Amino acid sequence: MKPGEALIKILSRKYDPLTLINSHFKRYDISFKTDQEGNPVLLFIGKATPGGTIKGERYARTLKKDTEGNVIKDHWELKGKAS
Asked: Domain of life here (predicted)?
């Protein structure tokens, strides 16, 4: 599954810094980790196991800013299977 506009909208919000957030999106379970600024940078999407881990796909976010804090590059890249 490729992150669509609705999921990107959820992931573009700010959350608590350096946390792992578990949630649901449509029929999928999602977990994402945030950086020190509260931006989601690592996404796991798929089906949650009884142990709480996600079996599915793993995405990483490229988020680059210039010296003034303006976003230069922001995209999600598929990194492979998550188990």
From this structure: Bacteria
* pTM strictly above 0.90: no
Q: Is the pLDDT of residue 4 over 80?
A: yes
CA distance 73 to 80: 21
Domain that holds residue 36: 5-82
* Total of domains in the chain: 1
Tokens 């998550």 -> residue: 82
Q: How far is CA 18 from CA 15, 21, 33, 40, 83, in A?
A: 9, 10, 7, 9, 22
Query: Which class for 28: exposed (0-12), middle (13-18), buried (19 or more C-beta within 10 A)?
Result: middle
